[in-house]
Predict the 3D structure of the following.
Amino acid sequence: MKHTPTGSAAIAGVVPTRPGAVSVETPRNPSVLRAAIPEPLVLRIPAAIRFSGLSRSGLYRAAGAGLIRMVKLGPKATGVDVASLRAYLARLPEAQIKAPVSRQSEVQ
């Protein structure tokens, strides 16, 4: 009788080889693997900058204003709370971009 993995084991590509042992298969679709990995609760400063698109100083300004929560991860390590960063980004105003004016209408 062949064992077919179900649930999260099937999603992550974990296939039992013998009782008590597993091997991990690389999925052909990387989004399947990403779906199985939970989102982190805290990002280090460089990762938060890449995630948000903010500059380092912009990140610290928002934290100083109490808009983003930062936590100490150690004596030299600072982390940014992902939930507060997402909430801050959601509160930013939407960009107002005007449609470009075609050059033909200017010439006439």
Summary: The radius of gyration is 23 Å.
